[in-house]
Structure prediction request, 288 residues.
Amino acid sequence: MPSGNIRTVAIVGTGLIGCSFALAIKQAGFAGELLGISSPAAIDAALRAGAISRAASLEEAASRADLIYLAQPVDRILATLRALGSLVRPDCLITDAGSTKAEIVRTAGECLSSSVFLGGHPLAGKEQRGAAAASASLFRGRPYVLMPASPVHPPHFAEFLDWLERIGAGIVEMTPAEHDAAVAFTSHLPQILSTALAETLQRQENPELQRVFGPGLLDMTRLALGGAGLWTSILASNRECVLAALDAFLDSLQEVRDTVQKGDIAPFFHSAAQFAATIRKLDHETGA
Prediction:
């Protein structure tokens, strides 16, 4: 059984990601206390899922936890960091799972000692939300981006990395700016395109669209099932990078339109297929 200095973990936000992290470290051998900080309904769901030991307040978590894991929407992570500034112990590691990083890391630097915060983002998820959808295997084979806020590693840094490796995550280190620019293309743009496609179809006055479709459309609109509340805060905190990604996509879309009009779209398909094959190969290799 793994042993170390992380004996009490507080999960702030007991939804899909927070509960999946708790279940994952439990499956990997963590035998300490897992506190849950969330709404009453989310706490009840987390208890039913077996992800946490009991509920706690943020104040209790700050006084007891060796690791505080913030798994909330971005705007609520920012608010929690501000609240923790006057509460947290200097020997506690605070990390987050937010989908954007620049604003979170900057706020942590303003509100906390830089020696206690580690920015993070697991590139894992589902369209389903909540503890009922949580899985101990959610992070296995998926990239987990880390952004140390200072050259001095926070307390329990090495032990936290060990837990990430035990649950099968692939650790990637980069700066907040590098992260936000990348996920604008690889995460935020796909979400917007899926949502825009579903909305485009919704606006068509053609009842046959709901009778004539195949699995491709289900695949393409899956991300549109994601909650608006979650994505509103993500996009607001990464607006400039997302706008740059949308501009790049609009250029490609105009090129597609031009090639369809000219009847010469084959090279576009070939180039796109090469990239699609490359990322599937990389995903297979990292998930092996």
Observations:
- Residues 242 and 259 are 26 Å apart (CA to CA).
